[in-house]
Specification:
11 strands, three-stranded antiparallel sheet, Spore Coat Polysaccharide Biosynthesis Protein SpsA, Chain A, 3 domains, single chain
């Protein structure tokens, strides 16, 4: 049995290293394509850019300023805010005064059409959009002046229904933001291209998406997306169902991740992992095979002497070098020695990968949700305690929330009974131990 286990671990290690290498090679090929000149006869249609905002994200003013300074024939900026007291309002007003020649509008309203806060913002901005081509861009995104030109260049055919962007993480000045950028600039950006090239599965990145108003209307508008956490994935799926292609522009946008504590990195990837697990559990389950550092560590723990240490050191160096090469081609800001932290980051990601198999809840900017099939959302109006991160506990929390009761199926209500029983047992045992300790 010991020999079989070793063999399985070695196969997993070899597969993980090979996949990382192939992923990086595909990324390099795609990035080289981004450096080709855009043809002079490319059609550049007028574009409406949606900027949903909440709070003061990292370097928000600089991020938004980059959109006011775009070099593009005709575009407009729509800023959406769902809170009348949001500090982002003053930032937008300041920039609108500084760039009066750029068409822009600020839409501030607390109206909500559903549980997804970002889609609520988009829904409220949509009536003010004047153009037939629409871009959604997140608040922590900074772009180059030719951003819209590169996006439009990918949508020259009527068969292309959606264009998304590759991501480059920048401004990593803390441990959390550094881990975020190490992950974005290697695994995330490489996987976007590799999964489509190898498995014909397009990935839609919600930080930057271009699509046509006609396609949005045909799928039911933003209202059709408001009950999903992975609204970007659902938009891509629904547009693909219309028979249109999704493309990824290799021209990178800059995701500004400045000053993140480690907890913010963990929370972000817990949410992303939970989304992917509920989109397709089979695809999510095999993701772990792309993490050779984990399997090398398991092999080392099983074989602590001799070959185990040599194999772990080899995988450590191989994965670090592969990621450094990918980062060099994506023109990442991080110095080379920061990539020595890559294996630590990979082990942390491996731990995060386990959680969504047991947790059905996420925290998104202070909003707590129960996640269902295809990332359907049920809002929880209370803070999620430690017990509620379990499956039964999550449904118990949802059942206590009055407006969530109608969204629970028979199976979910059964889990609620299990959750209440489990919590009662847990609480009773804790009280009993406490009493015994006092006596």
């Amino acid at each position: 049995m010991s020999g079989v286990t070793d063999y399985i671990l070695i196969v997993a290690i070899v597969f993980g290293v090979a996949y990382s290498l192939v992923e990086s090679l595909i990324l390099i090929v795609e990035l080289r394509r981004s450096r080709k000149r855009i043809p002079h006869n490319v059609i550049l249609p007028p574009i409406t850019v949606f900027k949903p905002l909440k709070g003061l994200d990292s370097r928000l003013e600089d991020n938004l300023r980059s959109f006011f300074e775009l070099d593009y024939p005709e575009y407009e900026l729509l800023f959406g805010i769902n809170d009348l007291d949001d500090p982002a309002i003053d930032v937008v007003k300041k920039l609108r005064r500084a760039y009066p020649d750029v068409k822009s509008r600020l839409v501030v309203t607390e109206f909500r059409v559903g549980p997804n806060p970002k889609v609520n913002n988009l829904y409220n901005m949509y009536p003010y959009a004047r153009f037939a081509h629409l871009v959604i861009s997140d608040s922590n995104v900074r772009v180059d002046r030719d951003y819209l030109t590169h996006m439009a260049a990918e949508m020259q055919s009527d068969q292309v229904g959606l264009v998304t962007s590759a991501i480059r993480g920048v401004a990593g000045n803390s441990i959390g933001s550094l881990f975020e950028n190490l992950h974005l600039n290697t695994f995330i950006v490489g996987n976007v291209f590799a999964v489509k090239r190898l498995f014909k599965i397009p990935i839609t990145i919600g930080k930057s998406m271009l699509f046509r108003r006609e396609a949005l209307e045909r799928i039911g508008g933003f209202r059709a997306l408001v009950h999903y956490l992975a609204e970007d994935h659902m938009l891509g799926q629904k547009i693909s169902a219309l028979g249109m292609e999704t493309r990824t522009s290799p021209h990178c946008i800059h995701a500004v991740n400045s000053g993140w504590p480690l907890g913010q990195f963990i929370n972000r990837h817990l949410r992303w992992a939970t989304m992917r697990r509920h989109v397709n559990i089979y695809h999510y389950a095999i993701e772990i095979l792309s993490n050779p550092v984990l399997f090398a560590l398991l092999f080392l723990l099983k074989n602590p002497r001799g070959f185990g240490m040599e194999l772990f050191a080899t995988v450590f160096l191989a994965k670090t070098c592969i990621d450094m090469i990918a980062a060099r081609f994506i023109r990442a800001e991080e110095r080379w020695y920061y990539y020595l932290l890559t294996p630590i980051k990979d082990l942390l990601i491996a731990g995060i990968w386990i959680v969504p198999f047991f947790s059905y809840t996420v925290n998104w900017r202070g909003n707590y949700f129960l996640i269902g099939s295809q990332t359907q959302l049920t809002r929880l109006s209370r803070h999620i305690g430690a017990f509620d991160w379990t499956i039964a506990g999550a449904y118990s929390a949802a059942f206590r929330d009055k407006h969530a009761v109608g969204n629970l199926s028979f199976f979910q209500r059964s889990l609620w009974f299990a959750g209440m029983a489990g919590k009662s047992t847990f609480s009773g045992t804790r009280r009993l131990i406490s009493r015994r300790a006092r006596t």
